[in-house]
Design brief:
seven-stranded parallel β-sheet, Rossmann fold, 37% helix, 273 residues, single chain, alpha/beta
Length: 273
């Protein structure tokens, strides 16, 4: 399968590379705004249609990760990278005849459920389940752009010949390999001098990550399941590991694409040494 990976070298892209790109069944093309010493890269800005369009030729699937990645984005940053960029990626896939489109959406498309219930929502006994039928409730321009991307993808699969399948992954907390554990955000804050290891801030970060963490291997498993699934033609799944205290549903992903997460944040009681 010929796969185009946009936004290749961020937290999510490197997880895909680490766990999928070396497998024989995938021939991966990398598209990013910057070159990479270890990979041949199509260097292009997702907001520049003419620059990205040739990379879509002869692709069977696109894993679309490129875009502004944080909730602090201004409207201008979000418009250029996440709105125009999303349209460009879908239009290029349609023009190239690419069948499968896997979109890195975000939990921030429904982020207001967390905003209005934090920090109590991080505790194991908090009673809330958000699934693919729950109303979209963005918490930022970033979250709004992800909701837009989902809707635009549905428009394409229902009104254009290609792509024929579109799966939106509402990713939770995927981290770089160094911090790929439920203590990752808390430990990174210590490393950056934001708080002490025994502080209340540290404990809040741990509690949140034990709910929100998606390990890099679980993320790669979810992406791969989307690459090999063709029915239904559109769906939304939550990108989170099998965490005991999560509030996002993963039964739908299990049932539809066979998502099989291996990790649970509750199994950790300390950071790795």
């Amino acid at each position: 399968m010929n796969v185009l990976l946009t936004g290749s070298y961020g937290r999510v892209g490197t997880a895909v590379i680490d766990h999928l790109a070396g497998e024989d069944e995938y021939d991966v093309t990398y598209l990013d705004r910057e070159d990479h010493p270890d990979h041949d890269t199509v260097v292009a800005d997702i907001a520049d249609y003419d620059a990205i369009r040739p990379a879509f030729d002869d692709t069977d699937a696109v894993i679309h990760l490129a875009g502004y990645p944080e909730t602090d984005g201004t409207w201008g940053e979000i418009l250029e990278n996440n709105i125009v960029g999303m349209y460009n990626a879908l239009e290029a896939a349609a023009d190239a005849g690419t069948e499968t489109f896997v979109f890195a959406s975000s939990n921030h498309a429904v982020g207001m459920y967390e905003v209005e219930n934090a920090p109590a929502i991080y505790e194991p006994d908090f009673e809330l389940t958000v699934d693919h039928r729950s109303p979209v409730r963005p918490d930022s321009f970033y979250g709004t752009s992800k909701a837009f991307g989902e809707d635009l993808g549905r428009f394409y699969v229902e009104n254009r010949d290609f792509p024929t399948t579109f799966y939106a992954l509402r990713l939770c907390s995927v981290r770089h390999a160094e911090y790929d554990h439920p203590y990752g955000d808390a430990e990174e804050g210590v490393d950056e001098g934001q708080w002490e290891r025994d502080s209340a801030e540290y404990e809040t970060q741990v509690a949140r990550m034990k709910a929100m963490w998606q390990s890099r291997r679980d993320l790669a498993d979810m992406v791969e399941r989307c690459l090999v699934t063709t029915d239904p033609d559109f769906d939304v799944f939550y990108g989170v590991s099998d965490n005991e205290r999560r509030w996002f549903d993963i039964d739908h992903a299990r049932d539809v694409i066979g998502y099989d997460p291996q990790d649970d944040g509750e199994e950790w009681d300390a950071p790795p040494e």
